[in-house]
């Protein structure tokens, strides 16, 4: 268990139930979670899984139906939003249109009654931090979408919150700007040392930006880990499927050997693996294999497969195979040599998967 002092935010069996017109909605269902100080923590999951609800509970805009929420080790349920060391950045920038950029950024400090000179200096510093030097006198409608989002960030950072909550802040931006802002946000987080809790439904965004990710589904946190852990060691079918492309194979744990395990696949053939996922010999299992961890060859001892389609992507080529009628399988081959496709559609091939690339899922 982690020590309490490391935790910026801790949720213990946190539950939120809404009374909707169609009955009760369990937006959060006994969520346990620790967000460490100074980390870039991402809540990742499909629309409706409870991400915004969790942020709103942390910010104090909603009250929990059950469980506990702690900040810095202290229960905060009773504390109103303005007494929590937290600020939020929304997808809609929510800037005040009648105020200048500088007035927007300084607004929170103004409300706190800080001296004018201090506000001026802090606003300058914040605008420099988000690379908007000299833009202070403009109005929001004289800025691009990306610049407006930077103003919203500067405003949220101005009164030095301990935690910054970001609810899909990049999803209104176009692709290129979004990529730029991903790097910017990451830089801002490491420069300020503020704990970022970032919400997205975009798996690539989560993988590239986060120190740790919590994958959510239907009000539950399914897995928490670093991007590598989540991508390379998914524990459930949902996580394996939601993050990146994955091949799922069903079968049976058929044999235990001295240093490895053998799986008998429903599609035919045997696979050697290293982990048993806590299963007994004979148990039914679902295995996950990433497309880039498998290779195809013309001969050898791999699984028998037939090439249905070859898709060339420039950097890689995707081979869509079939192990049998029910079992599709994708192999992704990186085009290092620049050679054209080595295989052709309809060809019978062999698929080899290294034992350490096989994950045994828990459901
Ligand atoms: N104020 C509310 N009243 C009723 N249901 C709500 C309310 N807010 C959210 N919900 C429901 O709670 C679930 C989680 O919503 P939300 O946290 O907004 O998901 P996400 O941000 O992951 O898309 C959804 O089913 C949503 O419809
Ligand atoms: Mg949301």
UniProtKB/TrEMBL annotation:
Part of the ABC transporter complex PotABCD involved in spermidine/putrescine import. Responsible for energy coupling to the transport system. NCBIfam families: potA (TIGR01187). The complex is composed of two ATP-binding proteins (PotA), two transmembrane proteins (PotB and PotC) and a solute-binding protein (PotD). It catalyses: ATP + H2O + polyamine-[polyamine-binding protein]Side 1 = ADP + phosphate + polyamineSide 2 + [polyamine-binding protein]Side 1. Keywords: ATP-binding, Cell membrane, Membrane, Nucleotide-binding, Translocase, Transport. PROSITE patterns: ABC_TRANSPORTER_1, ABC_TRANSPORTER_2. InterPro entries: AAA+_ATPase, ABC_SmlMolc_Importer, ABC_transporter-like_ATP-bd, ABC_transporter-like_CS, Mo/tungstate-bd_C_term_dom, NA-bd_OB-fold, P-loop_NTPase, PotA-like. CDD domains: ABC_PotA_N (cd03300). Signal peptide: none annotated. Residues 9-243 form the ABC transporter domain. Belongs to the ABC transporter superfamily. Spermidine/putrescine importer (TC 3.A.1.11.1) family. Its EC number is 7.6.2.11. SMART domains: AAA (SM00382). This is Spermidine/putrescine import ATP-binding protein PotA. One of its GO terms (molecular function) is ATP binding.
